[in-house]
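Entry for the shared binder. Reason: the reviewer on the internal report wants the predicted structure included alongside the sequence.
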Amino acid sequence: MVSASVAWGGVLFGLLVFWGGLAGLRSGLHGLAGDSLHRVVRKWGRRPWLAVVTGILVTALVQSSSAVSVIVVSLTEAGIVPLPAAALLVLGANLGTTVTGQIAAWRPLLFSPLLFLLAMVSMLGGKRGRLCAYCCGGLGLVFVGLELMVVFASATPAAGLLHGGANFYSGLAAGTVVTGILQSSSAVTGLAMGLAAGGVIPMLGAAGMVLGSNIGTCVTALLAASGRGREARRLAIFHLMFNILGVALAIPWVRQLLWLCGWYILGPERCLANLQTFFNLATVVMGIAFLKPLLTLVRWLVPR
């Protein structure tokens, strides 16, 4: 059994590797998309029903709901995308960002050497080759980082001892704060997977971290909208208010949601990935159904 400092240092190192891999993956995908990313959001985002699909697909492509939120805030400020369509774009981005968790939950560590080899070969292919190398290398680091977190968490002397100490609400607070700092809900979801799989925190605490990451990710839109016009601030407030409302509605049913997502059947990683996806899918449906009253409330909160 390794010492606590070494084990927790390994968990932190795994988180940094996971986070760095996400950054590389996003950088490569964003570079490959180029200006077409802005054109797609600008063209399709103005149509309400296509806005949700656009938010999902673009975020799944670039693996960054934060980047999509910043783009949408800018387009809303410029009057290119109206507030209702912008709100639907943001909801779609919430769902699209869950793709990373679903991929990481499979823990396909054996693919990492192949991805690193592809990254080295791609470096010889000019600018686009380097961008492909960022994608392959970044994805490989995501798998390695998650595996490191699981291995070191399970080796922690406190593994299992915190089973009753880390409750849902402490996990919710931690997920919100850490996501606000890291600006990455995917990294926090990966951390929750690693700690739960290693037995360091219970599933309820990990579920709290996953749901809290949905609140913490709103910090990006709030920062992007600060000092901007009325419509941009309304969009940021909508994002925050809606995600808080969704988490509040999910709290009484969190145990049932975990059972529905495969608790004790699929394992911690797959269960938490499913929770993140199912939660955001449910909130997207709710957002579409109640979009008009929610926007009315936002306009009242941020008047002319």
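Summary line for the report: Residues 4-301 form one domain.
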